[in-house]
Description:
By secondary structure, this protein is mainly β. The protein has one domain (2-67). Helices cover 13% and strands 49% of the residues. The longest helix is centred in the middle third of the chain and has 9 residues, at 24-32.
Amino acid sequence: MKKKFNGQVYLFEFKLVVEEAEGKAIQQIGEKGYADKYRSLNQPIHLIGVEFSKKERNVVAFVVEGLE
């Protein structure tokens, strides 16, 4: 999911994991190059990976990385 807001770009990736955080959500944003098409806007880009535990039914990881 992507959202442009207030002169900035926010890219979200949500993943369901079995138990514990695996870091796959933020990893996928980088591997798939989701931010590439927004770099030409010359706006700050925020990458946000969120992982939900299927077992705990709650957020188990929330990672934010910034690109300039």
